[in-house]
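Budget justification aside, the reviewers requested a transparent look at the raw inputs and outputs of the sequence design task funded under Objective 1. We therefore reproduce one unedited record. The lines immediately below are the structure tokens for a 808-residue chain.
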């Protein structure tokens, strides 16, 4: 037992370090505070109806009417109960969020480095070199929890790939199936997609290595093992993946049926939308110098800034000047705005460049190639030939926005290659001549860039931003931006000097170790201190203790206004609200209390987005009325006020005439001139299911909603003759089924986004139910696959335990 404990002790120490570091960074959590995260607040608004239904019934609604008139819930809040890997995720997340993300990220990269042959102490340093990347903390601050959750599982997933290709087939099968399954479980396919770039590059490297050593049979066996593991991981997430894929075809991630603006369209996102957040050609250098372009848009320049001094000098009160300084954008780069740079660290980048010279073999070239590709693709519209090639031709690439996110590849590969270089130095595998030349070139390249911007940054850049003109147009004086440009230049100079210092210190430590001036343990400790000091302090610019608030304020982020209270007093079963006091189509706070015309989601229905673009944003009253917009919330003298819309058409109504549209363009254009209370526009493709109907009604005709659940709507009606009926519900045929008196009935799309039916005469009941056929079946596939993965884990742990016991 003592031998076993001795063997396990370094790993236990590593875990202890990671727990302490995670709690240290998020220390306000220990005092009962929590981190308010914008996207999590929006999630609470968008998911409230779904969570309430789940708590009330124990089932999944799979559809919500709280956002954008109505949309599937697959990407909002759905519990896929068949996937048992969620219990392993909970076990790994024994630390409270968001500190758990830091812990799992550190632990995952530690596991990868151990698998790649580094000793535990170097692996701890490498874990911090990766896990403290500034982008991760910017992501956490913004509340992009699914993204960070997915990032946390990439490294141990790749560890499984490495194990398999190194002949540890059972270990590779276990780690890859488990952590690929957990990565998919997090529900952020964009990170998984970018991780696939890394895995493909590494697989090519292992193939090249196997080819050179005539070991192709082993490569084939490992690849087969990984394919089996991938099948199990995908199987454990089948329902999530299928419904994400299927819904994607109808969302803004899928193609439009409109023929206008085709030069900007792809089979996924429009190019302008996908590339809006593109990294500038020189902006990539902020991986080395964080404030190269000013850092964050909302950076606080402080009272020592030229901007603050200029304001006070020109007669602005100090308190007001302090407020203005916090509002002005320090960032002046080409992106619309940013919460901070993708800073990888001066120490880490020096080690990476050193790895370019010291590390040999196919794996190095694979890492270099995929890193270069990621950096190039992050430039987006500033490297259009490459970006358009991928958007138009590379499967799935056009489904993702924010192309700069692909810099995650560099965040992974740079510390990985850097630690492989440090391992060779630590192990004494490099001859003196090659080492000295490599170190000299690395310091010269990395330090030279820092020195160049330190000396000539003010001559190279203008420090002007396009956004500055918008502020001037709002009434800010031009002289204020002269001062702001001085501050931006000073930020660059200070961080260039800072990074240069870390480069020199790191080089000096490595040189001292090579000449045996310090012992191995001091090399590890010194590099660890430099890595943590470098990254930790930059991260605190974007996420620090001041961001935390009392937990109750974070758990309940929305307080109803007087307008909300007025609307909530209306007991009508179902109606919609248009809130003009917020950014309606980028805010889900309204959805917390009401069924909203707007919302906050990156994958809303494509047709609804087009109605927003062509009608709702242009205040087309007929479209608001057909969407049963009963209340408008406006800014009043004493706060938001609710205005009742007497022309809202209700939950359903009868019309006398069908306007047939030849294509989507004609269909959406018809909403400019139609009378929704009298006629309905129908695509000609539905002619076969639209039966004959009377164009005149009876005074006794009526229809009303009698029961409401997000996934089940019941109406009762009375008709003297068959009538064409419009339901103010979003048309989505993949799961919604209509019944008249319990018998299935045809329904079709009207008015571009709504549902329509021809209802037979009589006193009848109409029910719409949302029950996607495959949900139950695929849940059973998830259950079977996740059970198999758990059995493999048990088998691997048992085999390892037996092996360790025999070897002691």
């Amino acid at each position: 037992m003592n031998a076993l404990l001795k063997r396990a002790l370094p790993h236990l120490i590593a875990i202890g370090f990671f727990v302490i570091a995670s709690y240290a960074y998020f220390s306000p959590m220990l005092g009962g505070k929590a981190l308010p995260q914008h996207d999590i607040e929006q999630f609470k608004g968008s998911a409230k109806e779904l969570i309430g239904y789940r708590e009330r019934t124990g089932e999944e609604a799979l559809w919500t009417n709280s956002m954008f008139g109505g949309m599937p819930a697959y990407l909002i809040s759905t519990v896929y109960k068949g996937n048992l890997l969620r219990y392993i995720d909970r076990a790994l997340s024994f630390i409270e969020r968001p500190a758990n993300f830091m812990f799992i990220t550190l632990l995952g990269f530690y596991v990868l480095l151990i698998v790649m042959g580094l000793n535990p102490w170097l692996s701890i340093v490498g874990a911090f070199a990766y896990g403290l990347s500034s982008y991760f903390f910017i992501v956490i601050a913004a509340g992009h929890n699914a993204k960070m959750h997915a990032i946390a599982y990439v490294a141990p997933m790749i560890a499984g790939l490495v194990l398999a290709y190194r002949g540890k087939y059972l270990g590779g099968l276990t780690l890859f199936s488990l952590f690929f399954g957990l990565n998919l479980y997090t529900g952020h396919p964009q990170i998984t997609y970018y991780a696939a770039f890394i895995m493909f590059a590494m697989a090519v490297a292992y193939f090249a290595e196997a080819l050179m050593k005539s070991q192709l049979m082993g490569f084939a066996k490992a690849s087969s093992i990984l394919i089996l593991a991938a099948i199990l991981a995908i199987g454990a997430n089948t329902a999530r993946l299928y419904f994400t894929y299927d819904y994607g075809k109808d969302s803004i991630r899928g193609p439009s049926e409109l023929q206008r603006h085709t030069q900007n369209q792809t089979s996924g996102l429009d190019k302008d939308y996908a590339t809006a957040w593109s990294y500038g050609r020189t902006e990539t250098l902020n991986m080395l110098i964080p404030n190269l372009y000013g850092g964050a848009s909302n950076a606080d320049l402080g009272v020592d800034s030229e901007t603050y001094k200029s304001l006070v000098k020109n007669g602005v009160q100090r308190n007001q000047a302090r407020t203005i300084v916090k509002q002005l954008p320090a960032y002046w780069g080409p992106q619309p705005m940013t919460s901070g740079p993708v800073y990888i660290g001066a120490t880490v980048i020096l080690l990476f460049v050193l790895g370019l010279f010291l590390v040999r073999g196919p794996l190095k070239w694979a890492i270099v190639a995929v890193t270069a590709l990621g950096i190039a693709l992050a430039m987006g519209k500033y490297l259009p030939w490459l970006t358009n090639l991928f958007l138009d031709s590379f499967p799935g690439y056009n489904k993702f926005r924010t192309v700069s996110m692909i810099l995650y590849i560099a965040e992974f590969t740079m510390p990985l290659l850097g630690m492989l270089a440090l391992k060779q130095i630590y192990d004494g595998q490099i001859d003196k001549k090659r080492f000295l030349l490599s170190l000299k070139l690395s310091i010269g390249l990395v330090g030279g860039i820092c020195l160049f911007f330190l000396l000539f940054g003010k001559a190279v850049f203008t420090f002007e931003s396009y956004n500055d003109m918008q502020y001037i147009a709002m009434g800010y004086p031009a002289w204020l931006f002269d001062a702001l440009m001085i501050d931006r230049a000073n930020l660059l100079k200070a961080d260039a000097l800072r990074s240069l210092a870390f480069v020199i210190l790191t080089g000096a430590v490595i040189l001292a170790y090579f000449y045996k001036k310090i012992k191995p343990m001091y090399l590890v400790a010194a590099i660890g201190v430099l890595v943590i000091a470098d990254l930790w302090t930059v991260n605190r610019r974007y996420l620090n203790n001041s961001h935390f608030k009392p937990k109750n304020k974070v758990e309940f982020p929305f307080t109803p206004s007087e307008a909300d209270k007025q609307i909530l007093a209306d007991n009508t079963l179902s109606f919609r609200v248009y809130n003009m006091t917020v950014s309606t189509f980028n805010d889900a706070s309204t959805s917390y209390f009401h069924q909203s015309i707007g919302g906050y989601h990156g994958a809303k229905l494509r047709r609804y987005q087009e109605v927003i673009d062509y009608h709702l944003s242009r205040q087309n009253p007929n479209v608001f009325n057909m969407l049963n917009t009963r209340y408008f919330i406006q800014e009043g003298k004493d706060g938001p006020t609710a205005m009742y819309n007497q022309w809202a058409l209700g939950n359903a109504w009868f019309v006398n005439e069908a306007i047939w549209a030849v294509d989507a363009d004609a269909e959406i254009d018809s909403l400019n001139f139609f009378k929704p209370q009298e006629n309905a526009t129908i695509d000609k493709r539905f002619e076969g299911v639209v039966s004959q109907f009377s164009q005149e009604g009876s005074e006794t005709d009526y229809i009303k909603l009698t029961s409401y659940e997000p996934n089940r709507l019941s109406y009762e009606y009375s008709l003297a003759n068959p009538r064409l009926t419009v339901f103010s519900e979003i048309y989505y045929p993949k799961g919604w089924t209509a019944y008249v008196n319990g018998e299935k009935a045809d329904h079709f799309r009207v008015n571009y986004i709504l549902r329509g039916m021809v209802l037979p005469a009589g006193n009848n009941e109409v029910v719409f139910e949302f029950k996607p056929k495959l949900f139950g079946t695929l849940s059973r596939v998830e259950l079977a696959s996740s059970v198999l993965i758990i059995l493999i884990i048990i088998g691997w742990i048992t085999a390892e335990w037996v092996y360790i016991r025999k070897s002691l």
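The CA atoms of residues 89 and 649 lie 47 Å apart. The chain has a mean pLDDT of 93. Computational costs for records of this kind are itemized in the attached budget.
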